């Protein structure tokens, strides 16, 4: 989702709402991927020696599932980072995105864009 990447004009409120809505959607998708990973890690059929008391090893299917989860999480994180660079921290806050714990460097910096 690239919005006005070729122009230097600031985003309109409608475009900012779309970016923030997509960021919230991505947050939910990433949370679901982490939940899938947790469920996979706690499912005995995906691990050899799960109940043995010794170190358990993942089955080939488990490795495939975990690799898929990692790939989807990476893809979503990259998209999220690109969207963060399109809006400022203040714009994200104004449109209801929780930015607590995030750095200013994660977002678009107006001063750097004008220079």
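Sequence proposed for the structure above (115 residues):
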């Amino acid at each position: 989702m690239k919005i006005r990447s070729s122009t230097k004009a600031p985003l309109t409120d409608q475009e900012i709402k779309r970016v923030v809505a997509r960021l919230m959607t991505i947050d939910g998708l990433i949370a679901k991927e982490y939940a899938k990973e947790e469920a996979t890690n706690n499912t005995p059929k995906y691990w050899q020696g799960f109940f043995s008391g010794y170190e358990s090893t993942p089955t080939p299917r488990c490795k495939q599932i975990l690799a898929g989860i990692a790939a989807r999480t990476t893809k979503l994180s990259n998209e999220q980072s690109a969207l963060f660079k399109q809006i400022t921290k203040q714009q994200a806050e104004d449109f209801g995105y929780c930015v607590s714990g995030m750095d200013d460097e994660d977002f678009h910096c107006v001063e750097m864009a004008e220079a």
